[in-house]
Structure formats: structure tokens, C-alpha cells
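Possible regression after last week's pipeline update?

I re-ran a chain I had predicted before the update to compare outputs. Posting the input and the new output here so someone can diff against the archived version. Not blocking, just want to make sure nothing changed silently.
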Amino acid sequence: MPDLFELIKTIAVSAVEARRPVEICFGTVQSAMPLTVRLSQKLVLGKESFIVRQGVTAQSFEEGDKLILFRMQGGQQYLIYDKKGGL
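New output (post-update):
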């Protein structure tokens, strides 16, 4: 019976995730060459996890830059939207 419960739970979580295809999050550039971005204390991602707009390269960022990221459904890829700034 626990297997049935886990299956129902998985289906429910998948249904909720399907309603949120994109999530906005923030990260901090750890290194520009090669590009690595820290999303949390335990999660640091490399360039293979990111999608960028045309004309944007790793040289566009410096260590310590705060980035606005869009996490694609499933969490495997992130779009680097822009650098975080203030008014």
C-alpha cells in the first residue's frame, strides 16, 4: 500500500509543477571563467546548466554579480535574464 501512496503523491506533485512552468530565482556568480553560479549554500551550477540571450557570454559577468534567473520546469536549465540591480 505505501507504493500506491507514493505514486499518488508523485502524480499530485507533477500536476502542481505543470502549472508553474517557470520559477524566478537569484544566483551569485562564483567564477566567470569557467562560469559557475551559486544558487544556495549547497547548489553551485556550471555553464552547462544555463541558457543565455544572444550576445551574452561568460565575459559579461564578474565574480560577485547577482543574477536574475528563470528556472525552467524540472529545474535542469536556467535562463540568465539579467544582472540584479537597484533603483
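Follow-up from reviewer: compared with the archived run. The first strand starts at residue 22 and ends at 31. Marking as no regression found.
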